[in-house]
Every structure is written in structure tokens, then in C-alpha cells.
Amino acid sequence: MFEILASPFVACLVLTGILCYFGIHVIMREVIFVDLALAQIAAMGAAVGALLGFDPHSVPGYAAALGFTVLGAVIFTLGRFRDSRVPQEAIIGIVYAVSTAVALLIFSKIAVEQDEVKNMLVGRLLFVDWPEVARTATICVVVGVLHFFLRHRFFTISKSFDHARDRGLNIYMWDFVFYATFGFVVTSSVQMAGVLLVFSFLIVPAVCAMMFFNATRARLFAGWTIGVLASAVGLTASALWDLPTGASIVAVFGVLFACCAAGYAVVRRTRLKA
User: Is a pLDDT exceeding 60 seen at residue 247?
Assistant: First the structure.
């Protein structure tokens, strides 16, 4: 059993490491569903690639998905209006709906197996192999190193758009770099784990950590701990009871979130009484 779960567990560690970091940014920016939108844009790109005759798992198929994801990064960069009359989340929702519809229209006209469509949603984590884990890990490490050196710019923009603008930062340029690198990670992660699991890795650890900690470093370590715990428990439950792997991990994330929310409510009530 442990040999079967080794590569999926390492894949989960890779996803936890990078997506928890991006999740903190996403929550601070209040663009919670941006990864779902990017994932659907990537799916639309994969559908266009399939329409042109490219295998979704081939290099040309991946390039098609990635190209559309970069286009999505441009849209989200330009979708930040200075007067906040139209919230960026509205733009994200529109892009998500339209890209999903276009992908479904294309899939309806080409011969795509039902399992391929299902994998986009729930992934195929249990069947991931070491070369795929290595490729995804390489992408995540490169993106992580880039963000480490540019972290002050990204966090300044995530914390306050107005403050970043007052400091003279080129908001549109750095937003594009942020969303483009995020798109690289999402495109690779969704192919391996599916939309639901990637969303869970992105949001749940970050939300739980931000309930209790203010410092970024503490939030990262707490989020990573939650991600590792959910991965270990979910994969074990999946193997022992023959359950879908991705859905099992997402369910464990739900339990951990409920526990953290209950704990936060107790802590907050105690602080108010003090």
C-alpha cells in the first residue's frame, strides 16, 4: 500500500508547498475563485488543442492549455479597476463561466472520453507517476524561487493596492507576473490533481492558518502542516476503504476546516471575555 501511495503523497507535498503560499495572496486580494477560473481557462485551452488534434497529455496539448492560461493572466491583470466600481471577483466569475461553456461546446464536437472530462474535475492523483511529480515539482520550485526574490512587491500589492500604487510600483506589470506564474502552477497541478483538490489545497490551509496567525511565516508553516495532515489522512482513508483519492482528501480538508473554525470561535470568544 505504501508503495502505491508514495508518489501521490509526494505530489500532495508539492501542491501543499506552493498552493498554500498562493492561497494567502488570493485571500488577501479577495479573488478566492481565481484558481478555478484559471483552471477552466486551461481546460478551454486543452479543448482547443484537442480540436486541433493534440493529445491533452502531450507537449503541444500542454502548451495550448498554458497559452490560454497566460491569456487569462492578462485578463485578470486588466480586470482590476482603480475605482473598484466593478469588483475583480466579478471579472473572474465571468471568465470562469464563459471558459467553462466554451470548453463544453468544444468537447461536445470532438471525441473525448468521459474519463478525460472527469479527470479535469477530480484528477487522477492515485495514478500519478514519478516523472510527472518531478516535472510539477520543478515548475513549483522555479516559481517559488522567483516569488521569494519578488515577495516584497507581491505582498505589498496583495495587502493594499493603494499603498502599492503610492510607493510607485507598476501594479499592472507585477499583477501580470503574479497571475502568469500562478497560471503555470495551476495548469500543471490541475492535470495531476483536478480542479476540486487544487482549490482545496489553495484555500483551506491558508484560511485555517490566517484564522490564528498574522505573520506570513507562521501562516505558511501552519498551512503546510494542515495540508500535509489532510493529504496523509485522505490518502490513507482512500486506500483502506477503496474511496476516490481526490474526494477523500477534499473531505478531510472539510473536517479540518470545521475543527479550525470551531477552535477559532472559542479563542475569539475567550478574547472578548478577557
Answer: yes
